[in-house]
Amino acid sequence: MNATFERRLWMLVAACLAAAVVAHLAADEPVARAAQANRLVESQVLQWTTEFGEAGWWLIPAGVVFAVAAIRRQHNLARWAFALIAAVGGSGILVNLLKMAFGKSRPKLLFEEGRLDFTPFSYGHAVNSFPSGHATTCAAATVVLALALPRWRGLLLPIGFVLALTRVAIHAHYLSDVCAGFALGTACALATMRVWAKWWPASVPR
Predict the structure, then answer these.
(1) Distance separating alpha carbons of residues 142 and 73, to the nearest angstrom
(2) What confidence score (pLDDT) does residue 122 get?
(3) What is the pLDDT of residue 187?
(4) With a threshold of 0.90, does the pTM exceed it?
(5) Contacting residues for 161 by C-beta, under 8 A, at least 6 apart
(6) Within 13 A of 130's CA, how many CA atoms are on the CB side?
(7) Whether 138 contacts 157, CB under 8 Å
(8) Coil, helix or strand for 204?
(9) Strand, helix or coil for residue 27
(10) Cα–Cα distances in Å, from 72 out to 19, 65, 83?
(11) CA 70, CA 67: separation in Å to the nearest integer?
(12) pLDDT at position 134, please?
């Protein structure tokens, strides 16, 4: 893993976390109400593109690529596919634990009841807004792809963040949820590669 690019990604993690704090304090409610006023949730394009934050869209193709590459002994490709599976799968488990721990209400409760609050260690879709799972998945997947395809880095990461932002547009999450989720997904992808390099250095994908 390129050391300079890794440092930049950790800087991205820090920037997203800082943005999440600022957004929660100053932007979550006005941005959510602006999305509601502009009726962005009615856009079929946004409804379709936001589905790319579902882990299955990444895990299933990666699993197929891993299996085919392993059979054909294309070891490096198989390792990158496994890295994506590990990053997306691991971050998915972690984000769901954090959702329950924070218990942040979703925009729906803001629109219906005027609520924007936290009920820690709660379970239920209405109170598991933070961090965004879709944003976490988008970040984990696009960071692994950016590491695997360095020539496309400048395109992959912005695409990942734009896909994550669709969660705000369709009222599924607040801006702070997306920023925190993107930080989490990026950190999980980096941690996946770092742990791999430390414990199994001979098999790290190149």
Answers:
(1) 25
(2) 86
(3) 98
(4) yes
(5) 138, 139, 182
(6) 25
(7) no
(8) coil
(9) helix
(10) 44, 10, 18
(11) 5
(12) 97
CA–CA distances in Å: residue 156 to residues 5, 119, 151, 187: 14, 35, 10, 16
Q: Are 149 and 105 in contact (CB under 8 A)?
A: no
Contacts of 88 (CB under 8 A, 6+ apart): 55, 58, 59, 62, 137, 140, 141, 144
Q: Report yes or no: 107 and 24 within 8 Å, Cβ to Cβ.
A: no
Does residue 137 contact residue 92 with C-beta atoms inside 8 Å?
yes
Distance CA 72, CA 34 (A): 51
CA pair distance 37, 57, nearest whole angstrom: 30
* Helix (H/G/I), strand (E/B), else coil: 104: strand
Work out the number of other CB atoms within 10 angstroms of the CB of residue 83. Answer: 24
Tokens of 72: 């054909």
